[in-house]
């Protein structure tokens, strides 16, 4: 996307994973493409580009949103957290560790969307019930795992979170 | 699947937004949550020449509730309305319905007013507005008008919002005391648009007999289908109502069509089932609220 | 051995990069590549009269536009027919870009290369193609009537016709056996279209190195070695000048074994022609309308049986909807035909299929590959027999089971690998016993009565299958221990999330006696391993797993020999523990594998202190022997191949309890239980993950997913909005149990596990719904609306 296409570009500034990033993007650039191709953060994946699969979910000012249904220019000045920003000071987050421990991923393509969604969910609800966990991940498609171990991983992440904050 | 190019406007205030919309005329479109619009753009099923992005107009992100009802601004996200305590207290149907709108992540971004303007007959919020007899406030350069729900939904994906106009807020009236509401739907997958769904509102008298009952049905007509069933319920306590007759009365009024997910016949049948469920749920809710009121009165 | 790694729940080594966003999927590569997009046919069947690109030429950022006329040499020829078969008398494949006729919505017509994908799509939207619309052929039965033809030179729309017949032990044909049987039934069974639908679509990224005159291609493929050969052939390049790498792949499930896709040869061609990097990343709509689907078949079944429910004769006629082309041959209907018989001894069997062209997306294997349809036929047949005789459904199955003592069991047919269909091992009665215990089969009638008393309808269903896994022809493994003590394993087949890096490392670490941390595994990279077949048919663990084990054993033998020289010991007395070779019982007499690796490579030039030990003046040497002895090779590496005589047969049985809502006709799975036998388990955690995923897809196929075409050949639900893949809320909890009957055919005793989970789900759910409703279920998937219609029809029939 380095090449000029003649389209008018908007200078935007995003705080991505705590780092101030600048980009010049056409108005129609989807946030997913901006993150992946303008900023080189390819951890956010694109599975459907119509908002159904959830693979592209990132945190916008802390709340999970579909980056394929958001224009980059719209979120100028806002904070974005992607999967690359979930580990703190090089240490995997409880959610990341739980997904690995519980075999909550196979091909890993949908995983960044799940991780971002679950991170925000467990921040707001530290002791979720089974139904709440199901509802929380109900907008993310996975074609590999049959969701069994993803559900398990969310509960495990809550457990790790509790252990480590307790 | 990438959106076509468009001219982008990021107004600093409502006046600027209306100016931009006025100039764009029929080529203009408002971008709020974008959860319905951007998929259409990505699939290149829509190609507005101008997008007026109102995400910077935080003054439109309002939710204000008083005894008369809840007014929701154009930038209030589904999730914010769903969580808003005063909105929930004044008009509980909002939160009941919002829990059924797509998935939590979509609700973080999508707006209630945007959903109304999108006017999808399968969506929950238009049915809520229609059931409650609410209205949408449309602003244009130099003026504004309130459009009642019955006039607002014109056809599938078609509202009364004209080129140059912008829906700035919607008003969801409160219900009288001893009223209750419910929203029941069946979707193929959790979070999908409903195959059929029914919003219901019931008001009871002091003796807990039904004095008002209405339903709004989704996915069974070009717009939400509102049916007043007060007469069929016949000022009886809910337990004595002939619910099958009520269901039939509603089934006679809907115009379901078959599609890849369900036949017209199934939708008609399902609407009947859901009418009963929703009305009974709303009546129970009304009885609870009546009992609470009575309790408070005694205290 | 340090730790026993084979058979353990070892954590996946792939995860570290995938949970931190450091995976490298196709579209993550080539940040500066040009983007390709395609103008695809909006019509199911049409003649291209003219392509007018003039309006697109002004698009800023446009680099190139290509149509079929632009394609040179072999690129202009039809795409390869990958698996020819004598019965496929009228095999047809498409062109990389459509020539004259388009035969399904989505067929590529024009290729656009531009600065980015946005601009490429802008240009596509300005290209005008003038079509003369031809009559579309939609629906397999309509196609079989052949009023209109998909290919003008394919009479009757029949691409292939095949009959396999196995007489009864006493020489009766199936039809004779059915005529002579005490009971006969005849019925029709339907399965509709679904698709693999990985969350990452296909994609290709190519770099041409003009200085080196070489090409590197990255493809989201299940077979990089075969893509490489196809690209080299189509572009006329010497094979050594083409490298193909499968990076991290976001799921395959069958669709990515097909190759070369038009884009897989067009993108490298354009990259070379333009001398620019070019990338194509398939979007979701493209994946729906221009990749592949599977499952749609109509089956007519006749069965004859005795009073105990033993099948005496079975006659199945299958109409297979092949879509517009047959690049993958007739593998799917062959698998249905042969795997249909499952764990049973069928008295006499006749199966006939016609593979029919329609103006729809081509049909190639999707996880399960014809087996779900076959199992649906056989298991629905078992249930019908039980109902007819008033017997318990599991009793009828038991009466027909092949017994543990009867292996190897020859089913008398030719399997998909062209080899005899001989089952190697299994224990079906034990599997069923475990399943019945787990689900509580015998106590279910009481549970059902209890539910009925509350006005609830519940039902139970069971389904059994046998799956030929690990088909040949071969896979290879290469193992190298370097002087730093690290173990580098490579194999040619590819990975799409199955955890190969982990299980192959477990195998290597176990075989070599090294810590797993020392082992790294590379798959699907032709730079590392050039000879391979690919990942499909539940074959990776069987094929590459055994090849790697054999390669490790070669390396181990060599290491022991070198170490024995150094330790002046007998190799037979040596063991390797924790990466150190030592004399058994004498731990002090030892030498690290790293040093052994150094010593195995006689050096003239040292590159560090350790490697000085291997240089020519370093110490004692046998002056009568060359530094590298006859028959030896320098270096601590080994390569071996595993090529089985035939497939190994995994098996399993599933049971489910469902509840149907008497009012809304919603269907809810209350319990889902799996007993699974894939021989020796390498990593139970990963096997369970494979089963879960398969069942999840099976639930999709049973209750949610279908491709809906209208009469014009338009796919009506080409989006995730309307093609209903299950979310977490739609998949029930899955309970699993393992039975291990090792395969006698391979050194590790393993069988494939990748596809198993999906195979019997439609049969099981159909049976459970039938049990709950008392209504015959003979087509899947089934929606609440379908169930509502069935109830209405049943009521009507009762009144009449």
UniProtKB/TrEMBL annotation, chain A:
Domain 2Fe-2S ferredoxin-type residues, every copy: 10-86
Keyword Iron: yes
GO MF, one example: metal ion binding
CDD domains reported in the protein's UniProt record: fer2 (cd00207)
Pathway listed: Alkaloid degradation; nicotine degradation
Sorted UniProt keywords: 2Fe-2S, Iron, Iron-sulfur, Metal-binding, Oxidoreductase
One Pfam family per UniProt: Fer2_2
Database matches in InterPro entries: 2Fe-2S-bd (IPR002888), 2Fe-2S-bd_dom_sf (IPR036884), 2Fe-2S_ferredoxin-like_sf (IPR036010), 2Fe-2S_ferredoxin-type (IPR001041), 2Fe2S_fd_BS (IPR006058), Beta-grasp_dom_sf (IPR012675), Diverse_Oxidoreductases (IPR051452)
Protein name: (2Fe-2S)-binding protein
TrEMBL record, chain B:
Pfam families referenced in this protein's UniProt entry, alphabetically: CO_deh_flav_C (PF03450), FAD_binding_5 (PF00941)
Organism field: Planotetraspora silvatica
InterPro entries, sorted: CO_DH_flav_C, CO_DH_flav_C_dom_sf, Diverse_Substr_Oxidored, FAD-bd_PCMH, FAD-bd_PCMH-like_sf, FAD-bd_PCMH_sub1, FAD-bd_PCMH_sub2, Mopterin_DH_FAD-bd
SUPFAM superfamilies named among the record's database cross-references: CO dehydrogenase flavoprotein C-terminal domain-like, FAD-binding/transporter-associated domain-like
Protein's UniProt name: Carbon monoxide dehydrogenase
Annotated signal sequence range: none
Top-level taxon of the source organism: Bacteria
Keyword tags: FAD, Flavoprotein, Oxidoreductase
Residue ranges occupied by any FAD-binding PCMH-type domain in the UniProt entry: 1-177
GO molecular function: FAD binding; oxidoreductase activity
Gene3D superfamilies for this protein: 3.30.465.10, CO dehydrogenase flavoprotein, C-terminal domain, Uridine Diphospho-n-acetylenolpyruvylglucosamine Reductase, domain 2
